[in-house]
Design a protein that fits this description.
By secondary structure, the protein is an all-alpha fold. The chain has helices at residues 2-14, 19-35, 43-61, 63-70, 87-90, 106-120, 125-133, 137-150. The longest helix has 19 residues, at 43-61. It is globular. The mean pLDDT is 86.
Length: 155
């Protein structure tokens, strides 16, 4: 949890990832938030969960995730240069692999996992969500839109 609080969330907040990295980090944060009961055990852990939610919403609100959901994500560009000493290596390309190919819509996955967590802890998530998104109404609106699009109401 120290890495989440001290490294991961501040990094997402200050320098959001792009393209596939954004999807990978969003899915990782979602799994961590929804599969770690310790994040809902104490008040300090709930504050950390709220920060993770805000970071996840920033990722979901980013253009790279929106493009990926819409299917407009273009492959990442790899800079090609020529150097005769390393020509075979510099022109060798390794395709970018998506480790979560089965998750085509990260926003829907996030909403489903949040719903599952809310059914396991009824009434606990709503105040934490309000606390985590209170400083940015845009993120709160984005969460409501994602939940509405997925047809999910949190309990």
């Amino acid at each position: 949890l120290n890495i989440l609080m001290g490294v991961w969330i501040p990094q997402v907040e200050s320098d959001p990832p792009t393209r596939l990295d954004a999807k990978i980090q969003l899915i990782g944060l979602t799994k961590l938030m929804c599969a770690t009961p310790a994040l809902l055990a104490t008040d300090q852990a709930k504050q950390l969960w709220a920060r993770a939610l805000a970071a996840s919403m920033k990722l979901l609100a980013s253009d790279s995730i929106k493009q990926q959901i819409a299917g407009m994500d273009t492959p990442e560009e790899i800079e090609i240069s020529y150097d005769s000493a390393f020509s075979s290596l510099s022109f060798a390309r390794r395709p970018v692999e998506d480790p979560f190919q089965e998750i085509s819509d990260p926003a829907a996955y996030f909403a489903e996992q949040l719903y599952t967590l809310s059914t396991q802890h009824p009434g606990q998530l709503t105040p934490i969500i309000s606390q985590g998104l209170q400083f940015d109404p845009k993120l709160s609106g984005s969460l409501e839109a994602i939940l509405a699009k997925s047809g999910i109401n949190l309990v």
